[in-house]
Specification:
This protein is 35% helix and 23% strand. With 124 residues, it is α+β, with helices and mostly antiparallel strands.
Length: 124
């Protein structure tokens, strides 16, 4: 016998060994998608919808914790003017807004409305 034949003679592979590894890999990718990627993309879409729906007289909170009222919000620009105190106005990027406090902007976007499992059917 040659050296190659002698070396490969004692090694055998388990049947289906490669396919089980592929199935595990596909399952891992699917789980990662549903746990990490999908919720994050939904949150990004929600934030973009909120920022595009901002209008004057909205009470907002920035990501830095500054509370104020929107004085001017242009659709074309990426900035807003916010009144933080009487006579004090600051300019912020729209991306710096964390939330709108005085109204539920989701009413205009039904795809983002929260659906509770145990919410009453008659709206109470």
């Amino acid at each position: 016998m040659t050296q190659i034949a002698a070396a490969t003679e004692g090694t055998t592979t388990a049947p289906g060994g490669g396919s089980s590894m592929i199935i595990l890999l596909v399952a891992f990718v699917a789980i990662f998608y549903f746990i990490a990627i999908r919720p994050q993309s939904r949150q990004m879409k929600e934030k973009q919808a909120m920022l595009s729906n901002m209008r004057p007289d909205d009470a907002i909170v920035t990501i830095g914790g500054i509370n104020g009222v929107v004085v001017k919000a242009d659709e074309d620009e990426d900035t807003i003017i916010v009144r933080v105190a009487p006579g004090v106005e600051m300019e912020f990027l729209k991306a710096a807004v964390q939330s709108i406090k005085n109204r539920d902007w989701r009413e205009e976007f039904p795809q983002f409305q929260k659906k509770g499992l145990f919410a009453p059917k008659d709206g109470r």
